[in-house]
Structures are given as C-alpha cells and as structure tokens.
Amino acid sequence: MHREWLGGIIDHVDQNPKELHSILKEFKDMIEGDTRIYLLFSSMFEQIPKKKPYSKSPTGLRQVRDYKHMLAVLNHLLTTAPSWNDKSHRVGLVGLPINAMLDWPMGTSSGFAAFLDPEVNAMLKKVLNAWGNFLCSPESADVLGNDSHGWFGKIGKTDLTATANIGQTSYSFEDMYVCEPTAKNYGFKSWDAFFTRAFKEGVRPVAAADDSNVIANVCESKPYNIAHGVKARDHFWLKGQPYSLIDMLAHDELAGSFVGGTVYQAFLNALSYHRWHSPVSGKIVKAYVKDGTYYSEPLFEDFTESHGADKANESTGQGYITATATRAILFIEADNSAIGLMAVLAVGMAEVSTCDITMREGQHVEKGDQIGMFHFGGSTHCLLFRKGVNVQGFPKSGGEHNVPVRSELAVVQS
To answer: pLDDT class for 199, splitting at 50, 70, 90?
Structure first.
C-alpha cells in the first residue's frame, strides 16, 4: 500500500517536471557544496534494499532514486496540501506526505546520520516553513472538498467524525466542531484552519473543574507509555527507549526537579483534535520551543536486505523523539501543592514543524484552558511529575479510541 500510494505522486512528478522552489535550490546547493552531506544524501538511497517492497518494480527501480529525485518530489509537495487518501490512511501516513517519501531512506545508516545533522535540520526547518506558508493559504483548502480525495468526502468525513466520537457518542462533524455547515469546506479557509479546528463549547467539558487533585488530559490522544522512577540521563536511542530527562527538557535548569518522577506519553494522529489544554490550574513558569530533528528515527529501526523496515511507521520512535525532535516545553507551577511544579512536553513529529504556544510565561491558567496547538501533522506529548507526587489512574495503552481532551486523566493522592 505504501508503494502504491506514493508511486502515484512520484509518477506525476516524473511526468510534470518544473523548476525547483528557491528553498529547494538552496537545499540542493547545501548538499552538493558539503562533502559530508553529499555523501550521506547519496548513500542513503543506495542503502535501500533493491528487492520488493522497497523497489517500484521487479527490475529494482527505487521509488525515490536519489537526492535530486527527492528534491523534485519535495518541489511538488511544497505547493500541495495533504489530500484524503484511503491508502495512506491505512498505512498510517495520511497527512504526512514528506514522511512517506522519506520513510525508507530514514531507516538506513546514512539516513540516521543525515537526519540528526544540525545543518540538515536547519534546512529542513526552512523547507517545512515554506510548506507551512502554503498550508495557510486559500489554495490549500482545495483538498477539503467532498469528492473521493477530499477530507469532507464520504470516507474522509466518516473517519474524522468517528475519531472525534471516540466510540462513545454519535455526533455529526458540525455538532462537534466550530464551523459553517452551509459554507464551502465548512467555512475553513485553509488546510491549517481545518487542521487546528476547535471543538464547540461543551463538547469536551473539563473534568472535575473544582477538584484540583484531578489531572485533565492535555491532548485528544491515545496512551503510549507510562514510566516511573525516570532517570536524569538514559540511553533513549535503544530498543526500550527509556526517557532521558536532561535531553527531553533540553538541559533546562529545572530538569533535575523531575529525576525519579513519572512520565506519561500519548500520541495524536492526523485525524485528531490538535490543540493542547492545561492539565492543572497554575502559573506558567517557563514556556519555549526547542528546535530539534524532524525525520530522525531511532537506531534500532535500521534495515538491510535481510531485515525489513519497521511497519509501525511514525509511531515506533515516540520515546526516542522526546529527546531529539522539535518540541515545546512548558513548566507549570500547579496551585495544588500536592502537584507543585510539573511539565508539559509537546513534541512535533515529521511534518509538524510548528509547535505553537499560545500562553505567555507568568500567566495563570485554569485547568482546561488552551495553552497551545500543533500544526500540519501527527504528534505526541508528555506530562512530567516530580518524584513523590503520587499520581495514579492513568489510562492504559492499546485502546482503540482516543482519551478525550480535558477529561480525567489521573488523580493525585494528597
């Protein structure tokens, strides 16, 4: 399915060549002007196995053949919003077209090195910002229509609605989201406006608003992991992906406060609601974005002729990217002294180049207030509690549906 879906985009690019976007010309010059980067971007495609399913045909022709071909496909994607596609949805890459293109080169040893490189990531940030500018334009709303490739087509809208109903309700899209049901594309003027859509008041009530011991869920998301006794530093790149606090919190002076504490992590897919809400009432002590990687995968995902690529797509390295990817870091001093200082980590995954903090440092927030949002793709987030904070009742991973945003996530025992 991955090959079939991506192959259609590549066929279009191959049959309709056009001049590179100025940012991609700069990217090309960087690759060809630096021997180290040229080596990595050349060899990452050579290291992709030549057998199926990594090849387009039995002759061994690769889907993306080299870095020049990669730039040509990127050139098309920079002026194309993610359309609804049932194939990409089934392989977990709906809304993540660039990630889909890089999925296999990311998994090579040269890809590991390239996508950890600070210069490469600085260039990728420029590329993703250029794409983000397009996704905020009226032209990007063309993919929101009600045809088979539109997000408001029969299958796309059904899946969007089912995701938001979380197996508990049977509301329509317009019942749940702020929109204009009679307007074109439900009134969304761009892809980004659609992606960051807001729930209507009352659809996601704040859990136990008057009980400060109840922690509210920050994001509409599926539980991924819970860890206790987290270390200051750990080998986050290994198979178990243990949390490494100093790296997660970007060497912040407050990182030591959470040594021995608890981390809860959950995942948002591209169909989910993407705004973040405060888990507690309290003061925003610090809030900033740490630039990092965009397409780095953990080392254990390397593949060869005899060892296939990981099939779980962008979700496999969630623990790893908490220490490496671009992320928003927020420290909140809870009004409830049994909680005290806690942290929220909002981690961008792949195309999510913008982690947008909407509250300012020093501001007091109430439990459930909006504190930020993701733009442009799937993402993950963590809550961090200090050692000695007795927080219990987190939902278990493996469920079919998201845990609703602002619902009860856990309870602190005073």
So the answer is: very high
DSSP state letters, 231-257: BSS--TTSTT---BHHHHTTT-TTGGG
Q: For residue 396, with 0-12 CB atoms within 10 Å meaning exposed, 13-18 middle and 19 or more buried, which class applies?
A: exposed
Dihedral sign for Cα 53, 59, 63, 68, please: positive
Lowest mean pLDDT among 165-179, 219-233, 306-320: 306-320
* 92 pLDDT tier (thresholds 50, 70, 90): very low
Burial letters for 319-331: b for 16+ Cβ neighbours within 10 Å, e otherwise?
Answer: bbbbbbbbbbbbb
User: 2-6, 95-99, 109-113: which has the highest mean pLDDT?
Assistant: 109-113
Inter-residue contact 342 to 386 (CB < 8 Å):
yes
The backbone region for 309, taken as left when phi is positive above 0, alpha when psi lies in -120 to 50, beta otherwise, is beta
Q: Which of 46-60, 321-335, 342-356 has the highest mean pLDDT?
A: 321-335
SS3 222: strand
pLDDT band at 56 (very low <50, low <70, confident <90, very high): low
Give the confidence band of 103 by pLDDT, cuts at 50, 70, 90: confident
Distance (Å, rounded) from C-alpha 284 to C-alpha 290? 17
User: 33: which residues sit within 8 A by CB, 6+ positions away?
Assistant: none
Backbone phi and psi for residue 221, each to the nearest 5 degrees, phi listed first: -160, 165
Coil vs helix vs strand at 130: helix
Say how far apart CA 7 and CA 63 lie, in whole Å.
7
- Distance between CA atoms of 194 and 142, rounded to whole angstroms? 12
Distance separating alpha carbons of residues 344 and 177, to the nearest angstrom: 25
> What is d(CA 6, CA 100) in angstroms, rounded to the nearest whole number?
7
C-alpha distances in Å from residue 41, one per residue of 5, 9, 57, 108, 110: 23, 21, 23, 11, 7
d(CA 354, CA 284): 20
pLDDT, position 376: 75
Percent of the chain with pLDDT over 90: 72
Q: Sign (positive/negative) of CA torsion 299, 78, 133, 23?
A: positive
- Dist CA 342 CA 384 (whole Å): 6
